[in-house]
Amino acid sequence: MLNEFKTFIAKGNVMDLAVGIIIGAAFTAIVNSLVGDLINPIIGLILGGVNFSDMFIDLSGTNPATMAAAKEAGAAVFAYGAFITAVINFLIIAWVVFMLVKAMNRMMPKKAEAPAAPAGPSEVDLLKDILAALKK
């Protein structure tokens, strides 16, 4: 059983997957930093410093002043601002990843296209040939 496990781990697919996960985690940190530290502050300036994270509806009746105060008090809140922030961050991250993949695809060497297969006879031509063969 131990030998089977060693064989399984030594296979290229498992190692490729492990490397992919590690690189993916590092890439996630880079993209999150790009979005959180560079892009979101610019968006905040454009929107006049609006912070969606502090937008909530108090469901407990305690009327906390901020989201942090509501969390500290354990108050029930409908935190729609946090949801808006998550959606905006997702869209920004998806856009950044799209642009990075597009740039990487441009840098990759293009594969030589296979020559097109010669066009065969059309369906009508085949039917004519069959009809001519049947008439003989």
Tell me about this structure.
By secondary structure, this protein is an all-alpha fold. It has one domain (2-109): Orthogonal Bundle (Non-ribosomal Peptide Synthetase Peptidyl Carrier Protein, Chain A). The protein has 5 helices and 2 strands, in the order ααβαβαα. The chain is elongated, with a radius of gyration of 30 Å. The termini are far apart.
Main attributes of the structure:
mainly alpha, Non-ribosomal Peptide Synthetase Peptidyl Carrier Protein, Chain A, elongated
State the separation between the terminal residues, measured CA to CA.
Answer: 70 Å
Q: How much is the radius of gyration in Å? A: 30 Å
The CATH class: Mainly Alpha
Number of domains: 1
Order of helices and strands: HHEHEHH
CATH superfamily: Large-conductance mechanosensitive channel, MscL, domain 1
Structural class: mainly alpha
CATH topology: Non-ribosomal Peptide Synthetase Peptidyl Carrier Protein, Chain A
Please give the oligomerization state of what you see.
Answer: single chain
Strand content: under 5%
How many helices? The count is 5
Q: What do the pLDDT scores average to? A: 83
**CATH architecture verdict:** Orthogonal Bundle
The rough form would be described as elongated
How do the strands line up in the largest sheet? 1-2
The helix fraction, in percent, is 55-70%
How does the major sheet shape up? 2 strands, antiparallel
